[in-house]
Design a protein that fits this description.
The chain is 57% helix and 12% strand. The protein is elongated and about 105 Å long. The termini are far apart.
């Protein structure tokens, strides 16, 4: 039972996942962003390799072996990661209340729990090793004679090419996140705009507790007379419920093979259709004018399709040996998940079945006035229980909360991924500019324009972003298409999503690169060349 809130999705009686899939998703995204930060560290460490080459050469000359240098570089990486963890815990404590409000949960870290510290230290070690391993092995491999002569010629794959691959990889991840966020938002809007099949405005419900079970008719008379309510009914379940399903219905011309078809059961009283506003396509609602309604049912349009009745009103169905006449057919409405078709519904009539009271409020009065009147009458009849009124539009809004939260978190993760990627790009451009200061000074003296110098510095980086866009767009299209297929009712991936994500990323990268490129190209060439 303790696992059901995370593993509540079943097929053929076996758990196949559930909410745990979202936890896996966000853990994966968190580690993806951490990996981008590790890639930035690798890029900057290898980019600045020339500055550390002389240090490595001297240490090797006086007897340091490669393994001691690897340990030194990994220790530096671990120390940086450890300092970062201290900052991250501080930031976590500041933002955790806001995050808890978003998720409607109360998450916290127990700092007196050994498991928490083992997890934190595990992240420190893993991050330090991933970020520091390549720079450590790369820097420690320098030949001492070549480094002291300032002749550092690394293999192209392990210098430029790998750095380019890492930059392309991190921007691929960021673009996929942007496209995912746009698709998730579009799916939420699609489901929100899908008609629920009944009029939710001014529709309220309350649990049928205590005296309300035996005094429903008196309550109904009082509420209708007060003018706060225009119509109401009692039923076995709320309009929005997770299902009271059963099988075993028999109908004319039925094949035995289809007898395992599941139907949803609702047991109600008069004014069911009148109150909830569901569209009645054939027949009538339950009525006090027909005593025979105790053996009558109303069925949904999807149930009629299964029965294959051309003229369903007046036909009979058999349920556990009892025959029932179909008196009405109504359109299917969303009563469980808005993301999939709900089971066909059969609505029975029984005054003795209690559970929930649904009311259509009088829209000529103010909401506050209606609630106060309902509260006064209900408390007089049922003083032992507090009044709990739920408005159907709020109940249905909660059905979209999971995907809405997914959308907000995707926005946050996407923004963070782009920010961290641009930080790394800014660092690389700054270092590249520093390396080419004298070159730019000479070019300016020889007449190169500001725009030309900016192009020289920016082009190679922009080229990498374009490659990332080309790789990320088909990959994200495939992944998001697969995600959408999980929903029976889903939107399509619009063509405009891809160029928006691509141009947006390119624009942010251009702003990042151009700022540093302009600063370098605009510098006075005298400052770069006066000591030559």
């Amino acid at each position: 039972m303790a696992r059901l809130h995370l593993y509540g999705k079943f097929e053929d009686g076996k758990s196949i996942g559930g909410a745990i899939e979202q936890i896996y998703l966000f853990v994966g995204l968190a580690f993806g962003i951490l990996l981008i930060a590790c890639i930035n560290f690798m890029n900057m460490a290898t980019a600045k390799s020339e500055k550390r080459a002389k240090e490595v050469g001297i240490k090797k000359t006086i007897g340091a072996n490669r393994s001691s240098l690897i340990v030194q570089f990994l220790t530096e990486s671990m120390m940086l990661t450890f300092i970062a963890v201290i900052f991250s815990i501080t930031i976590l404590e500041i933002f955790l209340p806001t995050f808890n409000n978003l998720l409607n949960r109360k998450l916290n870290i127990s700092y007196f729990n050994s498991t928490s510290w083992m997890g934190i230290l595990g992240i420190v070690l893993t991050t330090g090793l991933i970020a520091g391993s390549y720079p450590a092995f790369y820097l420690s491999s320098f030949n001492p004679i070549q480094t002291l002569k300032r002749k550092i010629k690394s293999k192209s794959f392990f210098s430029v090419s790998l750095r380019q691959v890492l930059v392309v990889g991190q921007f691929c991840f960021a673009i996929i996140l942007i496209i995912s966020t746009l698709v998730i938002y579009k799916q939420i809007q699609y489901i929100k705009n899908r008609p629920v099949g009944f009029d939710m405005n001014a529709l309220a419900e309350m649990p049928q507790d205590g005296e309300l079970k035996t005094k429903y008719e008196l309550l109904r008379t009082e509420l209708l007379k007060s003018g706060a309510v225009t119509s109401m009914f009692q039923s076995s379940v709320s309009l929005s419920h997770h299902g009271r399903n059963f099988a075993g219905i028999e109908w004319e011309g039925m094949l035995k093979a289809t007898n395992n078809q599941m139907f949803n059961q609702v047991i109600t009283t008069y004014d069911f259709i009148k109150t909830n506003g569901i569209k009645l396509t054939k027949g009538r609602d339950f009525s006090e004018n027909f005593a025979s309604d105790t053996s009558a049912v109303m069925v949904s349009a999807s149930a009629v399709k299964i029965f294959d009745y051309k003229n369903p009103v007046g036909k009979t169905i058999t349920i556990f040996g009892d025959k029932f006449n179909i008196i009405g057919v109504f359109d299917d409405y969303v009563w469980d998940s808005p993301y999939k078709s709900n089971n066909p519904m059969v609505v029975f009539f029984d005054k003795k079945q209690t559970g929930n009271i649904t009311m259509r409020l009088n829209e000529d009065n103010s909401l506050q006035s209606n609630v106060e009147t309902i509260s006064r009458i209900t408390k007089a009849l049922n003083p032992a229980y507090p009044l709990e009124i739920n408005f159907l539009n709020n109940v249905y809004a909660e059905k979209y909360n999971a995907e809405k939260t997914l959308g907000i978190l995707s926005n946050l993760f996407g923004g963070l991924a782009i920010f961290v990627s641009c930080l790394g790009l800014f660092g690389l451009v700054a270092y590249s500019a520093e390396q080419r200061t004298k070159e730019f000074g000479v070019r300016k003296v020889l007449g190169a324009s500001l725009l030309h110098l900016m192009q020289l510095l920016s082009f190679s980086f922009v080229k990498m972003i374009v490659v990332a866009i080309v790789i990320a767009i088909p990959l994200s299209y495939y992944l998001m298409n697969k995600w959408l297929m999980k929903f029976e009712f889903h939107t399509e991936i619009s063509w405009w999503i891809m160029p928006i994500a691509g141009f947006g990323t390119l624009l942010m990268a251009l702003i990042t690169v151009s700022f540093q490129a302009y600063k370098t190209a605009h510098a006075n060439p005298v400052d770069a060349l006066k000591y030559e």
